[in-house]
Amino acid sequence: MSLPKIAWIGLGIMGSPMSENLIKAGYQVTGYTLEQEKLDRLAAAGGTAAGSIAEAVRDADVVITMVPASPQVEAIAYGPDGILENARRGTLLIDMSSITPQTSVDLAKAARDKGIRVLDAPVSGGEAGAVEAVLSIMVGGEQADFDEARPILEALGRTIVLCGPHGSGQTVKAANQLIVAVNIQACAEAVVFLEKSGVDLGAALDVLNGGLAGSTVLTRKKDNFLHRDFKPGFRIDLHHKDMGIVTDAARNVGAALPVGAVVAQLVASLRAQGDGGLDHSALLRAVERLSGAQV
């Protein structure tokens, strides 16, 4: 059987390498984004650049979206130029953006009225995970749609799990972002503590990562800490958005997040100081400032 035709909307830090991995896996990918250089990159990788959302999705069997937040998902999904008005009945829409669970639930309901099926399928793993096709993908939706989407998702990630009905993927992603932020903050505090104590930081992080303190966060972000390299793999601006999602969702279900609330404020503070465009490992800068460094 021939592979389904895919439309990809949103070719940012994550979307570009993910769409390219689908092309490498043999899928025909038509993409749309606002930046011409990203469309040129897709074309150079063997994809097809579209001039609009409507053009991208018109003949697609599967539409995949990867945009920054709920307002952007709503902007590309709804309205006369959006996905729901221009995709064919029976199309499978896989939203891989990180948005509020309620936005995903609302999108699935609106799409059902148009005969379009929806999965929310946010990811974890950052830019490196996207490039290496080893993302963790947490999915919400119907089992049959998940089964249909699985071969596509397997070209993008390594851990792929249906977590429950619509919105469940986003709920699990919110928990993921809580864990990641708290972990980065703990690592950043440890880095400052170690450096001020005169310890060989590289050696210390190596041995810590081999024990119970080790984590994927420390593995992925160790060089960022060592070299103060905060080129964005996942921007503070986006993690600020995600911490808002998880704190709001937790409030709605009556879950207390005392440590998460503190880290959310630290992320917000870093963003307010002009570091929103940096990688979230730049939480180290906030700890350094609190410890008296001029950064």
UniProtKB/TrEMBL annotation:
The active site is at K173. GO terms for biological process: glyoxylate metabolic process. The keyword NAD applies. Residues 5-164 form the 6-phosphogluconate dehydrogenase NADP-binding domain. Keywords: NAD, Oxidoreductase. One of its GO terms (molecular function) is NADP binding. InterPro entries: 6-PGluconate_DH-like_C_sf, 6PGD_dom2, 6PGDH_NADP-bd, HIBADH-like_NADP-bd, HIBADH-related, NAD(P)-bd_dom_sf, Tartro_sem_red. Residues 167-286 form the 3-hydroxyisobutyrate dehydrogenase-like NAD-binding domain. Belongs to the HIBADH-related family. This is 2-hydroxy-3-oxopropionate reductase. It comes from Streptomyces capoamus.
